[in-house]
Structures are given as C-alpha cells and as structure tokens.
Amino acid sequence: MDWKKTRLQTRALHAGEPRPRIGGSLSIPIFQSVVFEHLTEDTAYDDILYPRLNNLPNHVALGRKLAALEGGEAGLVTASGMAAITTTLLETLGAGGHLLVQDQLYGGTHAFLVESLSSFGLSFDFVDAGDPRSWADKLRPTTRAFYVESMTNPLMQVAEHQAVASFAREHGLVSIIDNTFATPVNFRPLEIGFDLVVHSATKYLNGHSDLVAGAIVGSGERIHRIRHHLNHLGGTLDPHACFLLNRGLKTLVLRVQRHNENGLTLARALAERPEVACVHYPGLEDHPHHARAEKLFDGFGGMLSFEPAGGVAAARRIIGRLRIPTHGPSLGGVETLVTRPATTSHAGLGREERERLGIGDALIRVSVGVEAIDDLMQDFLGALADGSETP
C-alpha cells in the first residue's frame, strides 16, 4: 500500500512497518545484536547487517516512517539531533564550503558553527531570515547551503521559509531546515521546496523525554550520501532507542494536536495578565510573524516564552511557585517543562549577544505539555499572582 496517499495519523501508525510482520509481532522486535550470520560467502558489503551501518530492521522502518510523515523519498535516524545537524552540514558543504544560516539558532547549532566549523575548513555567515533582500549580499562562490529553523528557540520567530526555498533553488544551494519545533504535523517543509529536513527526535517525534535521537529526511540521493558520511562518523542510533522512537511516532499526531490546543490557550491567557510584559507565540495575533505562521503552519505548536513584568526576581519566583511543570531544559515531551534560556539553552552566549537577540535574563520558556489545560492555567495564573512583585 502507498502510505503517502493516506492521512498523517495513519502514516504515523503504519508507514515503514515491515510486511509481513517479523515473526508475526505487531511491534518491531529490538535487534539487539552486533553480529549477523552471513548466509553465503559472497555477501555484498551493502547487504551485511551491522548497527553502525544504520541498516538494521529498526533503522530501516524508522527511516521509511519519517520519510512518509515529512513527504520525502528517504529518511535516516541518528544518535542525536546534533549528529543529524552536523553530519548533514559536513556532507552538504563539502571541502571549503560556505553556509548561509539564520541568525537565531538552537544553542548547540550556534556553538558548532562558531566554535567548530572553521576547523573543518568551512565558513558561514549569519543572515536575517526575515529579510530576503539582504541574502544575496552574503553569497560567495563557495556558498553551498542555506540553513534555517521552522521556529526559533526561544522567541518562536518564523523565517520567510518560502523565500528561503526559492532563493536556494535560484542560486543552486541546498536548503536545510530544522523542523523540530513544528514537527511534520504542523509543517512539512519539503512540500514548499526545501531539500532536507532535520530533527532533534529527542523532542516531539519521541515525545516522552526518555531517549536522545536525531532524524534527517530528503531525496533518496541526498540521504544516501549523508548515510555514507554518518557511517564513517559513527553517529548511529542504538536499536532500543529505535524501538522507543518508533513507538513514540505512533502517537505523534494525537500529541501535537493537544500541544497546539494547550499552547494557544495558555499563550492567550498569559498575554492578558498585567504581570506579563510580553508573550512570544506565533499563534497570537500580535506576534510579528503571525500572518506568516498562519499561512505556513497547520498549528502553532506547544512552545512559548514570556517575560514577567517584574524582571529576573519575578521569573525566579514564578518558576519556584509552579507545581505541575518541571523546571528543566529540553522540550517536546508530554509533561510541561519550564526553563530560563539565559541559564540553559543560551547560557553559552554572552549577555550582550543574548540581549541583541532579544533573549533577556528574565525570559521564561515553556514547553507546554498535554495535561488538562484547566489545571495548567490555574497553576500558571496562580504563580503569576504570587510572583508579580518587583524586587
């Protein structure tokens, strides 16, 4: 059956699953073996099952399922989101390549570019992903790719994605997007012309805060080249994590729909409170990129951030008063998480750089979970009332 002709929820459940089922098992068994018997002496190298080669049944099923969800030809899983990002960039840029990259990035990606990319003989320039007129000025003869995120962390900004894909195509660049925050439920970048999609599968794709993984989706040719690179670098996802990720993907659509509902409801409630100076959520009409997000996305996601009117002291009190959310980094799980990016995801940036990006020390990021929204609202609004005093 061509699963790409079915709806997303059906694909999440059935696409990529082996047919006939292995041993009749509804769940794909965990192939927790490093050695597989060669049935003939002339077995081709590409036919050898070996975990580092990303070709166990667990890997293959996930790649097919991810490709079906994103609308790509092929998919690949990796040991982490950073393994997906770095391997994709290294293979795509090649020797001496130059990268155009959005100027607001996940902290790990930013650190790799700033601290490590030059050691590979590669270079990059930050660009304002919302200003297409400025991009051509940064082009070089060696420019080979354009990298953006579907929504930025932690301010939930939305780039001119259609223009990025068109610009890359016009100038012979590979367009790459980190779709972690949106997920294929809310946004499928390949449909508007992107070449490659990467994910931290640790987050929404898995959804249960119990594994670290990454994913890459694109054309069969590009994924083949990236897999070859990954096999050399060794960023393979272990079989048990494959099993957990496959299980998590089966409820992706249901979970993200609830994240969308809860995120929008909580964002609207926070925006109405006098104790809150600003809420960053693309589903709010006053968000600077609301119209863009509404055009591109099927939902606005479960990520938001807000700035208390009382500054850092108020932010600390609010986090300390919350009872349902867990105070910790990461995102995309079923439980609500809160953190201050200045002390976690963006702690590696100096205060001046954070402020230039609009990431103040008092900013609170919320990964809204799937709890009952009435309970979340009561908890957050109560914490605001208790934390509204200025120092």
Outline:
The chain is α/β, with parallel strands linked by helices and 391 residues long. It has helices at 8-14, 57-70, 81-93, 107-116, 161-170, 183-186, 220-233, 239-249, 252-271, 290-296, 311-321, 351-357, 373-386; strands at residues 74-78, 98-102, 123-127, 143-149, 174-178, 196-200, 214-218, 276-280, 303-308, 326-327, 337-339, 364-367.
Write a structural description.
With 391 residues, the protein is α/β, with parallel strands linked by helices. It has 2 domains: 3-249, Aspartate Aminotransferase, domain 2 (3-Layer(aba) Sandwich), CATH 3.40.640; 253-386, Aspartate Aminotransferase, domain 1 (Alpha-Beta Complex), CATH 3.90.1150. Helix content is 36%, strand content 15%. The strands form 2 sheets. The chain has a 7-stranded mixed β-sheet with strand order 1-7-6-5-4-2-3, sandwiched between helices.
CATH structural class of the largest domain: Alpha Beta
Quote the average pLDDT: 93
Q: What Rg is obtained from the alpha carbons, in whole angstroms? A: 21 Å
In N-to-C order, the SSE pattern is HHEHEHEEHEHEEHHHEHEHEEHEH
CATH topology of the largest domain: Aspartate Aminotransferase, domain 2
Count of individual domains = 2
Q: What spatial form do the alpha-carbon principal axes imply?
A: globular
Terminal Cα separation, in Å?
Answer: 63 Å
Number of strands: 12
- The largest beta-sheet arranges its strands as 1-7-6-5-4-2-3
pLDDT < 50 runs, ≥5 residues: 387-391
